[in-house]
């Protein structure tokens, strides 16, 4: 198999990895060169800065996941419609340099007459499936815009996006609640966080539940230092409430950063929902599996 290079090229950062013949990551690099920092026509130069030395000799194949395939990216990779599996996505790669550098397309789906999209998360889901030996299940990818992804028989059937992280930031910084919340980012207060999750579930309406962060402070019912964790629990609890997880018997798979994944695991366990997690290697395993699929299709 030819040498494989994988890139996770997002809005604000770029990660690159070099794989050995068994799919293990032998080198990994990170640059603050997300697509928003790249000038028009500058993507080849940034790519070479990140991993040009790995591509020398002309035999290596680079697969790029994430926002590099958006309209603001290197080459627009049109969305692949769900349901979609490895083969469907491999057949829809957009080539920045034919036979050498390919952009992985994102996915689209539609529910109730409204489209939804993602770029990069599909690669993480496929990688988590490889790592955990799964071909079906419910996956959550926490973030500024969290994704809940449904997989059956090795194919992504559909997904939903939740602006949870963005709403938290808006409430935290730009609402009346900001006056009660301390500056800075502290450690998660597990008790306050779980209380927020439970309150969101019980109230069933974030527009109402969010005001409790103010009144708990007003009546000195919660320390100021605990309020950010409580608010985080409220918005994540609202996200979980919409998933109707009560009847779920199989674990929810959490794929995310060390900063966010533990919060979702804590919230799910607080609701009695079985949970498992995939590590930070999900993206790399997904790109490696994509390269193998591409090889078999050749």
Task: Outline the structure in words.
This protein is of the alpha/beta class. The radius of gyration is 21 Å and the shape is globular. It starts with a strand and ends with a helix. The strands form 3 sheets. The protein has a 6-stranded mixed beta sheet with strand order 3-2-1-4-7-6, with helices on one face. Strands 12-11-10-13-14 form a 5-stranded mixed beta sheet, with helices on both faces. It has 2 domains: 141 residues, Nucleotidyltransferase, domain 5 (2-Layer Sandwich), CATH 3.30.420.300; 117 residues, Nucleotidyltransferase, domain 5. Helix 4 packs antiparallel against helix 8, helix 5 crosses helix 8 and helix 8 crosses helix 9. The mean pLDDT is 93. The chain is built from 10 helices and 14 strands.
β-strand amount: 15-25%
Uncertain segments of ≥5 residues (pLDDT<50)?
A: none
The name CATH uses for the topology of the largest domain is Nucleotidyltransferase, domain 5
Provide the number of structural domains: 2
Order of secondary-structure elements: EEEHEEHEEEEHEEEHHHHHEHEH
Walk me through the topology.
Elements: E1 4-9, E2 14-19, E3 25-31, H1 43-51, E4 61-66, E5 80-81, H2 86-90, E6 94-97, E7 101-103, E8 107-111, E9 114-118, H3 121-132, E10 137-141, E11 146-152, E12 155-162, H4 164-174, H5 190-203, H6 206-209, H7 212-218, H8 227-241, E13 252-255, H9 261-270, E14 275-278, H10 282-297
């Amino acid at each position: 198999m030819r040498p494989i290079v994988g890139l996770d090229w997002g809005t604000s950062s770029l990660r690159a990895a070099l794989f050995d013949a068994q799919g293990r990551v032998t080198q990994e690099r990170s640059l603050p060169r997300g697509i928003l920092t790249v000038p028009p026509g500058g993507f080849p130069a940034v790519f070479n800065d990140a991993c040009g030395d790995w591509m020398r000799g002309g035999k290596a194949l680079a697969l790029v996941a994430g926002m590099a395939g958006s309209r603001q990216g290197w080459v627009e990779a049109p969305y692949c419609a769900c349901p979609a599996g490895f083969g469907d996505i491999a057949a829809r790669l957009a080539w920045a340099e034919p036979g050498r550098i390919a952009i992985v397309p994102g996915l689209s789906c539609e529910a109730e007459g409204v489209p939804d999209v993602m770029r990069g998360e599909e690669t993480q889901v496929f990688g988590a499936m490889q790592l955990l030996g799964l071909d079906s299940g419910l996956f959550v990818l926490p973030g500024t815009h969290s994704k809940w992804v449904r997989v059956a028989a090795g194919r992504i059937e559909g997904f939903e996006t939740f602006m949870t992280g963005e709403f938290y930031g808006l409430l935290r910084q730009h609402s009346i609640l900001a006056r009660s919340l301390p500056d800075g980012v502290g450690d998660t207060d597990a008790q306050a966080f779980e209380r927020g999750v439970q309150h969101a579930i019980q109230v069933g309406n974030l527009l109402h539940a969010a005001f409790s962060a103010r009144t708990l402070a007003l009546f000195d019912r919660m320390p100021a230092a605990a309020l950010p964790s409580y608010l985080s629990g409220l918005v994540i609890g609202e996200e979980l409430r919409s998933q109707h997880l009560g009847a779920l018997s199989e674990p929810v798979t959490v794929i995310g950063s060390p900063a966010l994944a533990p919060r979702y695991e804590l919230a799910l366990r607080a609701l009695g929902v079985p949970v498992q997690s995939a590590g930070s290697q999900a993206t790399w395993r997904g790109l490696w599996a994509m390269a193998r699929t591409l090889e078999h299709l050749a």
